[in-house]
Design a protein that fits this description.
By secondary structure, the chain is α/β, with parallel strands linked by helices. Helix content is about 30%, strand content about 20%. It is globular, with a radius of gyration of 18 Å.
């Protein structure tokens, strides 16, 4: 007998930011270059925000140099920022690797009690987007991180995040001009997703998403060869993590090999689901990283006639 899971339900959205808002910067994953961090903080200050840097943001693990300090300290910075009532947002400094190691160290009861806050990140931060959705019920933002090159150098990326933070009703329709229909159609659902490799790594772990029933999957990755992407997507299919998905929007596949080869994998693995699929919507590790709200109802349009492909949220990302 097939057990049908209920469709995903909209998550609790945090409040928009206003000038003077205090934003905590944390490093749940890899080591953070100090010069890039300072440049990112200057940009936040220019927006009228007051950044607060976590105590361990510039740490490097004493034995594992791919981690920004110990698991306990990275988790503690995130926990303290979230539970500080004076903090309005928690922004990640960078991705890399390591967020998976912190998820079970966080006090999710305390995080739920503190309520929703603006949370921004992508790449390795995918696991925290999923945890905040599934364990706390909070909407989050898949967007650029403070100490990353795309945030520091790309104006379109900066403008998209700034508009989302301060005037979210102005950026409800998303998608770069190059977005195209891999599988035409129109779908409505609840946005979720992130880095394909992290979603696959999360699948089957305690508290992970059991299915995608009623969801609009936003998915991208970086430096994965086409055969590796095949394996990642196949794992998501075999675990049932994509069961019931309403539609899929693909972001960037930077460094994942010749795009025709990547596209062939996407068409083969995702095309079999019988749902609309958009390619190159404009989020993730590419030269421009649009900010995508997770946990909100949206409509994905992939016109068969070659018209503009878009993701339109039915509510602003923030209240």
């Amino acid at each position: 007998m097939t057990v049908r899971t209920p469709p995903l339900a909209p998550l609790t959205r945090p409040a928009r930011l206003r000038p003077g808002a205090r934003v905590a910067v944390v490093a749940p994953s890899g080591p953070v270059p100090a010069d890039r961090l300072e440049a990112g903080l200057d940009l936040l200050r220019a927006w009228g925000l007051e950044p607060l840097v976590g105590r361990h943001v510039l740490d490097v693990h004493p034995r594992l140099s791919h981690l920004a300090g110990t698991d306990e300290n990275r988790a503690r910075d995130l926990q303290e920022a979230w539970c500080d009532p004076s903090v309005d947002a928690v922004l990640c400094a960078r991705g890399g690797y390591g967020a998976h190691r912190t998820v079970d160290l966080l006090d999710w009861s305390a995080i739920r009690a503190a309520g929703p806050k603006v949370f921004v990140g992508y790449s390795d931060i995918t696991v925290l987007h999923e945890a905040l959705a599934l364990r706390a019920g909070f909407s989050t933002l898949h967007g650029p991180m403070v100490a990353t090159e795309v945030f520091l150098k790309d104006t379109a990326t900066q403008d998209a995040l700034r508009a989302t933070l301060f005037a979210p009703e102005s950026v409800r329709t998303l998608g770069l001009d190059g977005a195209a229909a891999l599988v035409p159609g129109r779908a409505r659902g609840l946005t979720y997703g992130g880095c394909a490799g992290l979603l696959a790594a999360d699948a089957g772990t305690p508290g992970a998403r059991a299915s995608a029933h009623g969801g609009l999957l936003m998915v991208e990755d970086v430096t994965e060869e086409p055969y590796r992407l095949d394996g990642i997507l196949t794992r998501l299919l075999r675990t049932g993590a994509l069961d019931g998905v309403a539609g899929i929007a693909c972001g960037s596949w930077e460094g994942c090999g010749p795009y025709p080869a990547v596209r062939a994998v996407l068409a083969d693995r995702l095309g079999q689901l019988g749902v609309p699929v958009v390619e190159e919507l404009g989020f993730g590790h590419g030269p421009t990283a649009l900010t995508i709200p997770f946990g909100v109802p949206a409509v994905l349009d992939a016109p068969a006639d070659g018209g503009r492909c878009t993701l339109t949220t039915e509510v602003p990302a923030l209240t």
